[in-house]
Each structure stands twice: as structure tokens, then as C-alpha cells.
Amino acid sequence: MLDALVVGAGGVGSAALYHLARRGLSVRGVDRFAPPHDWGSSHGDTRVIRLAYFEHPDYVPLLRRAYALWEELAQATRQELYVECGALQVGPPQGALLPGLDKAAAEHDLVLERFDATSFAARWPGFVLPEGAEARFEQRAGFLRVEDCIAAHLQLAQAAGAELVTDTVVSGWQRRGPDHVEVETSAGILAARRLIVTPGAWAPGLLAGLKVPLRVTRQALFWFEAEELQARAGGAPVYFYELGDGRFYYGFPAEGGAAKAARHYGGSEVADPLALDRELRPAEEADLRAFLSGHLRGVGGARLRHAVCMYTNTPDENFLVGRHPDAGEVVFAAGLSGHGFKFASALGEALAALATDEETPASVAFLSPTRFGY
Ligand SMILES: Cc1cc2nc3c(=O)[nH]c(=O)nc-3n(C[C@H](O)[C@H](O)[C@H](O)COP(=O)(O)OP(=O)(O)OC[C@H]3O[C@@H](n4cnc5c(N)ncnc54)[C@H](O)[C@@H]3O)c2cc1C
Question: Which of 336, 328, 7 is nearest to 171 (CA)?
Fold first, then answer.
């Protein structure tokens, strides 16, 4: 019998596979596609990573661990996985973004730069500071190359002895007894002592037993022609704007003349991830262009590319990580709610620790689904 099976070898699952394999365990990852792929939640070139975490200060220790592990992974595979270009964050002083940033920075002693209208205009010619808004800049932030990160974890996992089975669908799992979990797949039944469930947008099916309502949404990404002003080489940062009405937009420095931008949250509900509508919706492009034309300079020319991805949202938009209430042998990470990729390295390590009954290097207890009281 295998020591461990990982269902879903995407962002978090690929990291879990690596951390289990490097412990010398016999481990197999099973995925319905061939990661990295663009059918789930981990594609589109880049993901923002930032340390002063406005969503909740409790994420900061987990993020510190994630930064260290991404660096290790980059060194071990000799590639640039993390690009530090800083994060410019702009919003109303009484919104969710700036008070959250200030709180996380104060609790964890993080450095945030502030600007008045004059210093903002001088430092950020490509960006607009709306009337009444304020801005913060964090240098220790930037982006991860999402597909390369997954490929790197899988490469090291396989080098350490992990098996990866692709194009194989898991339809269910059952605990058969102590140290015995069975998984039903399109290629037959597999058995293992431990099961790690990291299915992204398919969590509502495979983790229904958690009884936490998960809402999968469709999120559109666009790449537009951009001028030098928005180029990474010219010092452009990743950016995150909260508008006065609570909408969030974000984007990345341009690379090769193309700048990626998107709206955070607000996507339409997806009933079946396999039937995701991947067509371009003109209203989404118009919404994004309206944001860009009001808040950025030098971006918003021709549309160069478009992609569609999925968020899997929990009721409070914080992740679900822990041990399954119905089976101590089963651990999971799901409901990453549109902000989880930056944590994938540390979540994979935490899942490997939970599965082997070790203490997690950084706490994930605050992400337990028991907070919902179901
Ligand atoms: C447009 C967009 C922008 C984002 N921006 C950011 C950002 O800037 N920063 C950030 O930190 N996060 C961001 N996120 C969130 C982050 O990318 C996701 O939370 C994260 O990548 C999800 O990882 P995952 O491992 O849960 O899912 P995935 O990487 O999708 O992996 C799940 C895997 O499970 C497999 N699978 C599912 N069901 C089965 C089954 N039944 N049998 C076999 N295999 C199965 C799938 O094929 C898939 O490979 C963004 C997400 C989107 C969609």
C-alpha cells in the first residue's frame, strides 16, 4: 500500500507531493489533467505575492514560510520563479485594503511606504491617486510564475521518487480503517495510508463532507498593449486598487509590451468546472478598460490575450485547511478564494506535516473549517 495519495496535483497538490516525497514516503499524485494546465485555477503566467496581508494578519507567518520555500524551490531548479517588483496598493482610508494593510504591518513589523499627492505623482507616473484615496507601497512583494512553480514542484517530487498519474479522474474516496483509505479513480481503486485532497474548483464534490458551502466563480484575465511606463524594466510594480464602492482591480508590470490586469471577485457562478464558459465577454473587457483608463496611464491599447480561470470561495474568503472530521487519515486544502497561490509552497509543506502527524512549520489552525461550526 502507498504511504500517501495526493488527489489534484495543481498549485497546492504539486507542493504536497514534493514535501511528501522528500520525506522518503511512497507517494502518488492523481490528476484529471496534466499539470500545469489551464483547466483549473493555476494558469495565466503570474500570481501576486505580498507580505503585508490585508485579508488577515494571521496569514503573515505562513507567508514568510511560503517566501522561504519559493526561494528554495527556485534555487533547487535554477530558475526565476519569484520576481520582486514591489506592490503598490491604493484605496480609501476607511476601506478594507488600507486599514487591513496597516494592521498586518503593525502586528508583524513590516515596512510600508506612504505617499502624499505630490510624492505619489513623482514616484508613480503610471498611476492615478483618486481624490480622497491613499497609497502604500511594499517592496517585499511581486509575482510568481505560476505554471513554472507547479512544474518545478512536480519535477522535484518525481526526482525524489513520487509518481504522477495524469488524465485520471477521482470520483470518490472512503476510509476503510486505520491507516487505510481507498480512492476510486477512472483507472481503478487505489489504496494508501494517507490521503491529501487538493482539488481546487472540484472541492465542492470531493470535500462535500466538510459541509462548508463553496462557491466557484468565473474570473476573466486580460492582457493589453502597454507602454514603457508600465514595464517591469522601468520599475513598474504589481498594483491593487480598492475603489470607493468596494470593487477591487489588480495587475502586473508589462512584460514584452503586454500588461495583465483583472478584476478581483465579482465573477459569475460556475455550476460545473468542466463546463466553464471560456468565451470573451465584452462587458468584462469594457469594465476592466473603464478601470484602467481612470487609474493607470500607458496601458489599455489593443487586447493581446484573454483567459478564464476559477475562484473557489468560502463564506469568509479564508482558506479551508486541516484534517477531515470523518477520517483522520485525510487532510485537505481547498477554498483558496482567489488569493491562495502565493501560499501553495507553504500549504503543501503543511499538508505533508499534517499527513505525517508532525507539527506544521507555520500555523494553519486559523484556517480550520471548524470556524464555521458545522
Ligand atoms: C484569475 C485568477 C487570479 C488569481 N490571482 C492570484 C494572485 O494574484 N495571487 C494568489 O496568491 N492567488 C491568486 N489566485 C488564486 C490561486 O491561483 C488559486 O487559489 C490557486 O492556484 C488554487 O490552487 P489549487 O491547488 O487549489 O487548485 P488547482 O491548481 O486548480 O489544482 C487542482 C487540481 O486538482 C485536479 N482535480 C480536481 N478534481 C479532480 C478529480 N476529481 N480527480 C483528479 N484530479 C482532480 C485539477 O485537475 C487540478 O489540477 C488567482 C486565481 C485566479 C483564478
Answer: 7
Distance CA 330, CA 211 (A): 15
The per-residue pLDDT for 40 is: 98
Residue ranges for the chain with pLDDT beneath 50: none
199 lines ligand 1 (CB under 6 A): yes
Burial tier of 300 (Cβ tally within 10 Å: 0-12, 13-18, 19+): buried
Predicted local distance difference test score (pLDDT) of residue 109: 98
Q: From CA 6, how far away is CA 20, in angstroms rounded?
A: 9
**Which triple of cell numbers denotes residue 62?**
505562513
Q: Are 16 and 348 in contact (CB under 8 A)?
A: yes
DSSP state at residue 76: H
Q: Ligand 1 centroid to 101 CA: how many Å?
A: 25
Give yes or no for residue 31 CB within 6 A of ligand 1: yes
Residue 47 beta carbon below 6 angstroms from any ligand 1 atom: yes
Q: Exposed, middle or buried, 374 (CB in 10 Å: 0-12/13-18/19+)?
A: exposed
Using DSSP bridges, classify how beta strands 320-324 and 327-334 pair: parallel, antiparallel or unpaired.
antiparallel
* pLDDT the model gives residue 373: 87
Q: Could you give all domains of the chain from N- to C-terminal order, each with its CATH number?
A: 2-45+147-207+317-372 (3.50.50.60), 87-139+215-313 (3.30.9.10)
Q: Is the distance from the beta carbon of residue 10 to the nearest atom of ligand 1 less than 6 Å?
A: yes
Q: d(Cα 57, Cα 73) in Å, to the nearest integer?
A: 25
Question: Is 12 a pocket residue for ligand 1 (Cβ < 6 Å)?
Answer: yes
Q: Which atom of ligand 1 is nearest to the CA of 264?
A: 3
323 conformational bin, left if phi > 0, alpha if psi -120 to 50, beta if neither: beta
Determine if ligand 1 sits within 6 Å of the CB of residue 318. Answer: no
Total residue count of the chain as it appears in this document: 374
Q: Does the beta carbon of 273 lie inside 6 Å of ligand 1?
A: no
Pocket test for ligand 1, best of 54, 56, 149, 336 (most atoms within 8 A of CB): 336
pTM above 0.90, yes or no: yes
Gap from CA of 309 to ligand 1 centroid (Å):
8
Q: Does ligand 1 lie within 6 Å of residue 11's CB atom?
A: yes
